[in-house]
Design brief:
alpha/beta; 3-stranded antiparallel beta sheet; 10 helices; Rossmann fold; single chain
């Protein structure tokens, strides 16, 4: 009933009342009733309940009665608010990208299971680190149409080009090591990304960019990376290639099953091919050897891309009356529990 965007709207105070006059009318009826209840309320000592062993204090004001009245008053106030039909203003993504068309190709081959990444002080796999950095990069590119390609032995579309970055973020988090096989098909990833950047609906002069994240060497697929890069250049696609991790050094790998001994393997990054692919299309090659380098790389890539042109934000109205009624019911339930339980009066 209450999804995350609606909750965010409440936290940000992006709430409005569709019928505020109803709230004013309800206030005219409720406030006098509460005033009368206070005036007629018991201002006397309360008789203790012998069924309870806790000591009772004799006070000049009946505090339990006041608490009961406060709970009922709060419930009535929430009912009045529900009558005014509160709505949360949830920001919508633009219908079409107003920036560039951007595809991110993320390597999910077996070598991305290497445990030489670091995230918030904890050791993580290269893929876990890459997912976090790519998600952060996507948040900086609001207004772009972004697509996600996952590749290993084969390449497939994880998310098509879309301006709805919530879908893109969800697609990034679904990428797992080995989901496309353990080998690395760089050529297929570039070819598929180029086809996605030719998708209908994009302006003919739109900037088209592919950001390729990999930590290995092309060893799968029939399309060579250099050939795929030439096709991308003819289609007006610029490729920025990012090599992840050290090359030629033994690194630890995450255990596939609990109790499995930690294994060390060498990962061979084909820097020459990645440099050639980037140069063919007028892009840049980056080598992120350390975890902190990866964020510097995405910041450098972001600086080379055209900034999105933001249009007027659009909002959708999310009804909040059901949750307001739920809170009112909770207050009434709490009041009933107190008056018929802990604060029960003797006849």
């Amino acid at each position: 009933m209450w999804t995350t965007p609606e909750w965010q709207a409440v936290l940000e105070g992006a709430i409005r009342l569709e019928h505020p006059a109803r709230l004013a009318l309800a206030g005219v009826l409720i406030l006098p009733a509460l005033a009368i209840a206070l005036w007629r309320g018991p201002l006397r000592a309360r008789v203790p309940d012998p069924s309870l062993h806790a000591p009772r204090f004799w006070l000049p004001v009946d505090l339990p009665w006041l608490l009961s009245l406060a709970l009922r008053g709060g419930a009535l106030a929430l009912l009045a608010a529900a009558l005014a039909e509160p709505v949360g203003l949830v920001r919508e993504n633009p219908a079409g990208g107003e920036g560039i068309d951007l595809v991110i190709a993320l390597d999910a081959s077996g070598s991305m299971n290497a445990l030489d990444g670091q995230l918030e002080g904890a050791r993580v796999t290269r893929l876990e680190l890459a997912r976090a950095v790519v998600s952060e990069f996507v948040r900086q590119r609001e207004g772009d149409r972004i697509g996600i390609i996952t590749f290993g032995q084969h390449a497939f579309t994880q998310s098509p080009l879309t301006a709805d970055h919530r879908l893109v973020q969800a697609a990034i988090q679904r990428i797992e090591v080995g989901v496309a096989g353990d080998q690395t098909a760089l050529g297929e990833a570039i070819g598929l990304a180029t086809r996605r950047l030719r998708a209908p609906g994009a302006p003919p002069d739109a900037e088209r960019t592919l950001v390729l994240f990999t930590d290995g060497r092309h060893n799968s697929g029939q399309l060579a990376p250099e050939t795929a890069a030439q096709i991308a250049r003819m289609e007006g696609v610029r490729i920025h290639a990012v090599g992840i991790g050290s090359s030629g050094q033994e690194v630890p790998f995450a255990q596939k099953t609990p109790g499995e001994p930690l294994r060390f393997e060498k990962v061979d990054l084909d820097q020459k091919t990645l440099e050639s692919v980037a140069a063919h299309t007028g892009g840049l090659f980056f080598h992120a050897r350390r975890p902190e380098d990866l964020r510097d790389v995405t910041a450098a890539i972001d600086a080379t891309l055209a900034r999105p042109h933001q249009g007027e934000p659009r909002y959708r109205r999310a009804a909040l009356a059901p949750i307001v009624l739920l809170f009112a019911l909770a207050l009434l339930g709490g009041e009933a529990l107190l008056t018929h339980g802990l604060l029960r009066r003797l006849p």
